[in-house]
């Protein structure tokens, strides 16, 4: 895997490449499109029944929080929160009063203290036990931790160094919060945003190629290994790898499959709907085999597109109807296996009698379409033209 990072005055783009294939793309406008992970001193604007609250964290819609576990909070009170989900066009950001600080190997938190979890993507049970025991011994009093996938094989010394670094950040952030005037972003700053992005994408990356200012390049180089500078004209890194063409394809409604079938992708505020179609492959002699083969081809394409487009929330997949239970199980199993490479660990439900599979995928950054596209001012994004007669 190769990670390409392109930075200019307006945006920072990260492209994870599997050979010549674009596996994942993140576009950060002004290095801060996504606020996920930011620790902010906000101000409580309104407390609703059930201790749900709206929190002012800066320009735009007020953030939303569930404060059920935090009693005695009042309207107008400053509150330290962390952004869990970005705002959308219709909703403010979702924030939590439970704060965590992310490193490359470990995520440090305080609720609940003493608890150590290990990424389920580390499949070796012996390694899981080793990491859990090592981190438990290193944890400062009052803290808990989640061991990330990239910690596999890490030494106790590396774990200790990162835990101490994260503890320092955590405690300095809490100290700053006592004197900060809302709204105040305490963590991360721009250079920390770089580190947060790298911690998400640098696992199993063989090389990182950077295009940008000297300061930006040095910031990446100081935080990662195998970093090289793009030698061509600045801003041309993504053009040399065919990324522009693949990005355009990731915004299209129809995605062709190798065997002649295709999938269609419809995205709304509430959910994404993916429909599998046989297309030209429907002319094959054995219909059952054709349908099964098309659904199997669709599995890889669907996971690719979910990751690349950063679809989140509820995703509904309408596979071509299968009459046999073993065929349904085969498609669902293939989907779960393919989805293991998704770092957001989506939950995949069993296929219904009608061939419908539901996926629940965490919302982190904004979908790619929200960043790279704008609604048409004439049709409001419906893509429809009025055919009514003028009078």
Notes on the protein architecture:
With 391 residues, the protein is of the alpha+beta class. It folds into four domains: 2-33 and 190-245, Nucleotidyltransferase, domain 5, CATH 3.30.420; 39-98, Beta Barrel (OB fold (Dihydrolipoamide Acetyltransferase, E2P)); 100-179, Ribosomal Protein S5, domain 2 (2-Layer Sandwich); 252-372, no CATH class. It is built from eight helices and 21 strands. The strands form four sheets. The protein has a six-stranded mixed beta sheet with strand order 16-17-18-19-21-20. It has a five-stranded mixed beta sheet with strand order 3-2-1-14-15, sandwiched between helices. A five-stranded mixed barrel has the order 4-5-6-8-7. A hairpin with a 3-residue loop joins strand 9 (100-102) and strand 10 (106-109). Helix 6 runs parallel beside helix 7. It is globular and about 70 Å long. The mean pLDDT is 84.
């Amino acid at each position: 895997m190769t990670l390409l990072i392109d930075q200019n005055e307006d945006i920072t783009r990260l492209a994870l490449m599997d050979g010549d294939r674009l596996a994942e793309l993140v576009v950060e406008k002004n290095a801060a499109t996504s606020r996920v992970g930011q620790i902010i001193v906000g101000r409580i604007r309104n407390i609703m029944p059930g201790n749900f609250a709206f929190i002012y964290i800066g320009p735009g819609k007020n953030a939303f929080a569930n404060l059920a576990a935090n009693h005695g909070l009042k309207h107008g009170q400053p509150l330290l929160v962390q952004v869990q989900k970005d705002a959308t066009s219709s909703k403010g950001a979702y924030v939590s009063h439970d704060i965590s600080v992310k490193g490359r190997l470990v995520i440090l938190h305080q609720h609940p203290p003493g608890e150590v979890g290990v990424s389920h993507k580390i499949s070796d049970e012996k390694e899981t036990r080793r990491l859990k025991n090592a981190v438990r011994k290193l944890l400062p009093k009052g803290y808990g931790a989640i061991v990330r996938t990239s910690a596999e094989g890490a030494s106790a010394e590396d774990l200790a160094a990162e835990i101490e670094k994260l503890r320092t950040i955590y405690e300095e952030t809490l100290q700053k919060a006592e004197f900060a005037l809302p709204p105040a972003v305490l963590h991360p700053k721009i250079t920390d945003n770089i580190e947060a992005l790298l911690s998400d994408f640098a696992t199993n990356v063989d090389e990182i190629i950077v295009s940008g200012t000297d300061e930006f390049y040095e910031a990446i180089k100081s935080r990662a290994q195998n970093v090289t500078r793009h030698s061509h004209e600045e801003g041309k890194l993504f053009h040399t790898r065919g990324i522009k063409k693949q990005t355009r394809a990731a915004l299209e409604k129809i995605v062709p499959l190798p065997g002649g079938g295709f999938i269609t992708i419809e995205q709304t505020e509430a959910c994404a709907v993916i429909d599998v179609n046989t297309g030209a492959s429907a002319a094959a002699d054995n219909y059952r085999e054709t349908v099964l083969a098309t659904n199997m081809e669709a599995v890889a394409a669907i996971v690719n597109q979910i990751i690349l487009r950063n679809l989140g929330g509820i995703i509904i997949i309408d596979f071509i109807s299968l009459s046999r239970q073993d065929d349904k199980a085969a498609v669902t199993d293939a989907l779960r296996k393919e989805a293991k490479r998704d770092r957001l660990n989506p939950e995949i439900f069993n296929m219904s009698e009608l061939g419908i599979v539901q996926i629940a995928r965490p919302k982190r950054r904004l979908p790619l379409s929200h960043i790279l596209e704008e609604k048409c001012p004439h049709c409001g994004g419906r893509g429809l033209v009025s055919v009514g007669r003028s009078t």
